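Subject: Molybdate ABC transporter substrate-binding protein

B.,
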Amino acid sequence: MKRTIFQSFLALGLGLAAQAEEIRVAAAASLAEAITEISTAYQQETGNKATPVFAGSNVLARQIEEGAPIDVFVSADEATMEKVEKAKLVKEPVKLLTNTLVVVVPEDSEAKVGSAADLANLKKIAIGDPAAVPAGVYAKAWLTKAGLWEKLQEKFIGSENVRAALAAVEAGNADAAIVYKTDAAISKKVKVAWSVPEGEAPPIIYPVAVCSGSKHAAEAERFTKFLKSEKASTIFKSRGFGLKAE
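Prediction pasted inline below.
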């Protein structure tokens, strides 16, 4: 009898394991803490695992183009998402989040930044690669609009993603960095010297989409919907992101 009960529980466990699905979520580096926390909440609620992969949005898009097994893509900008959408690699992207550009300096820095023009007083400024990394693209658009991009060229240190720009300041390799508000919030080694006012920089939008090549499309869609749930929204807001209503 005991053996029969044990076998029944074993069969039940194997059945549940067989039903569980695992998806891979490619998300912009700036989303690392939020998506990790949300993925844990998702698994607790559904029993299914969402494994996050973080990098610059441009790097993730290239991986998707090369056929990487990605089920959900969350980009830090619409341009990168539009690129993979035009290639029919994602389905019907929706706007998910917003963010803000800030200038950060070391915690003990006495540097004063009260406008874009004050960046001229700094020696080295870390930014995401302005040719590809969304944070760098946003920074370039902001400074170009302010008429300062060319003037500040020699001061910039290009980084592979926004977190690398933040790390440059933390390590003392740059006097400042242009990052997202949410990046500044995770570091105890930097402080926000200035927040770029709304209207001076282009809107920062994070879209999300299910990848066309996903072998777990239904589960990927379920996770995408979970990202807009009350539980996920609470996590995003606690990390400093704004919610983008469709």
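The domain at 22-98+205-243 is CATH 3.40.190.10 (D-Maltodextrin-Binding Protein; domain 2).

T.
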